[in-house]
Write a structure and sequence with these properties.
alpha+beta; Endonuclease I-creI; 6 helices; 4 strands; 23% strand
């Protein structure tokens, strides 16, 4: 997948997507346990869009979704959960703006749960790499146009008026 395709997927996710934590109870070893699972989805009325997301990422499934209310067009939903959702969020994280905080919280919670269970957890070097990338991305998001010389030079320019 190219950088352009990944940027496109992130843009679609920003506008049409959802990230969340689904909690459920399951019986393991005779003990009722509560588990949480990170999930991501993109819903749209144009099936081509969600199919393209699945094609580019190689993750998730596309299924029809029943629309809410009368006189609504059919909807299509791309959905990924657990390891596929984590992989998706790590792929698009550098491009996220409005959903970045939600994605970070979902990944943090998911990785913490994996570490507690001792299954499928990240190695120490993978965890450090994730935290380093997260800090770098936060620094990029903290940048504001008014705080640097390039933005000031652009603001000092005379606006061009159409004739």
């Amino acid at each position: 997948m190219t950088e352009a395709e990944l940027g496109w997927v992130a843009g679609v996710f920003e506008g049409e997507g959802n990230v969340g934590i689904h909690t459920h109870q399951c019986l393991r070893g005779g003990i009722l346990r509560r588990q949480a699972q990170v999930q991501v989805s993109i819903t749209n009325t144009d099936v081509r869009m969600v199919l393209r997301v699945a094609e580019i990422t190689g993750l998730g499934r596309v299924r029809p979704k029943k629309p809410h209310g009368n006189n609504r067009r059919p909807q299509w939903r791309w959905h990924a959960a657990a390891a596929q959702a984590r992989a998706f969020l790590l792929m698009v994280m550098p491009y996220l703006v409005t959903k970045r905080e939600q994605a970070e919280k979902a990944l943090d919670q998911s990785f913490a749960q994996l570490s507690q269970r001792g299954k499928g957890a990240l190695s120490t070097s993978q965890w450090r790499d994730y935290l380093r990338r997260k800090a770098e991305l936060r620094a990029l998001v903290a940048w504001r146009p008014g705080q640097n010389e390039v933005a000031i030079a652009v603001e000092d320019r005379e606006p061009s008026l159409p004739l």
